[in-house]
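From: lab user (bench 3)
To: helpdesk
Subject: output format question, protein + fe (iii) ion

Hello, I'm new to running complex predictions and I'm not sure whether the block I got back is the full result or only part of it. Here's what I submitted:
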Amino acid sequence: MASVDYLERIPNNVNLRENRRLLRALEEWQPRYLSWWNEVGPEGYQAKDVYLRTAVSVDREGWAHFDYVKMPEYRWGIFLAESEPNRVIGFGDHQGHPAWQDVPGEYRGTLRRLIVTQGDTEPASVEQQRHLGRTCPSLYDMRNIFQVNVEEGRHLWAMVYLLQAYFGRDGREEADELLRRRSGDSDKPRILGAFNEKTPDWLSFFMFSFFTDRDGKYQLAALAESGFDPLSRTCRFMLTEEAHHMFVGETGVGRIVQRACELQREHRTDDIRRFGGIDLSTIQRYLNFHFSVSLDLFGAEVSTNAANFYTLGLKGRFEEGKKSDDHRLHEATYPVTTLEHGQIVSRDTPALVSLNERLRDDYIADCQRGVERWNQVIKRHGIDVELRLPHRGFHRAIGGCAAARIAPDGRLVSEAEWQAKQAEWLPTGEDQEYVASLMKPVVARGQFANWIAPPARGINSKPVDFEYVRLE
Ligand code: BYC
Ligand code: FE
Ligand code: FE
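Helpdesk reply: Thanks, we reran it on our side. This is the complete output you should expect:
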């Protein structure tokens, strides 16, 4: 059942037609979703044709179709990865039992909360990025942000499907709440910290797609291991879309780095703001910010919630199936970095309560690989600078290190030193003003803003100067 039914109002591969109650619930939610999209989704371009990809099947090969679409007419739908026959739960107390096709009654609240937390991030990111179309550095980039936006909208559909299909009236209420909360709103904020921050400019957007969407990759991968099979299948398909979001972030930052290097070489100075570039030290400060707020998204390093999610079979580890231990972890330990008596130490900790930290470790290793690719760009230009991930304790608001001031190099510092050095470590008001001053739209075909290099290639084998958004 890999093909998707496009004749339906809500494209899907879950046989919606045969589940009248669910279909009605989703059809009632659909107009509310659209008014949310029109109210806080991408501003200014809703009536334009955008060259977007739409999921048309869940096969590994050829799942996407590219064409011009007006965003409000995007075919948001419900797509689950193919079911694995006889799938069994891979970890926790129910290891080896058949995966659940329905929600086990006693885990209802816990599971609902996980799904709501995941779901809440998706519309939040669309809200955060609402105004960026107006300042795009090229049509290529404008198309990419809109692609990310419609897919985050689809990720909301993915979670709302689960809520409406499996959680009855509570699920329907949660589905409405997902459309009521707003990123950055003091009365009804989004659930997780990073999703209430501003994404005011394209440097922030690319950093967000690199660092924060990558949290999405790791959380989705952990939920894809779930014993609740519909959640697992939903997340598995979301991961195929997620790869493009991280590609946009990595290549976006990479192109800004490249342009910085070009300007630096051309003018023989690292003071490239005079020439309209974003200097590597500003890029480093933005990196420090986005990495640290994204690390917070993994929760506290010692967490009984995480232990419960695992023991109950609801949320696994990254690549759980590839690990060769007992998948129960009652006896195992894991090294956790924490603050003890004013010192940062590594402590062997029961593995079950350390699962957030373990997922964060997997995430950090993945971020590090991307930073190394950026550093290759710098090196190729013969410039002796390296971008670095700051220490995991730097600028944290969640977990043991939140109580201390920690420098990017991992030193514990006094409040006075923190205040004195903050401007070297995190984006300053002046940085933000400077970056904002560069945000002038470039919308002529094949043209790029001066602060970013063109991409190596276009989308779907189209040329770089393709008309990715039709503005006429
Ligand atoms: N902000 O036991 P702890 C994505 C709360 S991104 C605010 O350590 P736990 C995307 C926590 O809820 C992926 N509150 O937490 C990316 C708990 O509250 P209670 C999103 C926070 O539960 C880009 C308390 O603090 N998916 O898809 O082990 C664009 C104790 O904490 C935060 C998921 O997150 C925070 N940062 O772990 C678009 C997956 N951190 O119980 C999309 C689902 C913790 O004391 N969520 N708290 O009231 C989860 O797995 C878990 O909820 C978390 C937290 C990993 C987030
Ligand atoms: Fe998403
Ligand atoms: Fe994403």
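A quick orientation on your result: Residues 152, 213, 216, 242, 245 surround fe (iii) ion (ligand 3) (CB under 6 Å). Let us know if anything else is unclear.
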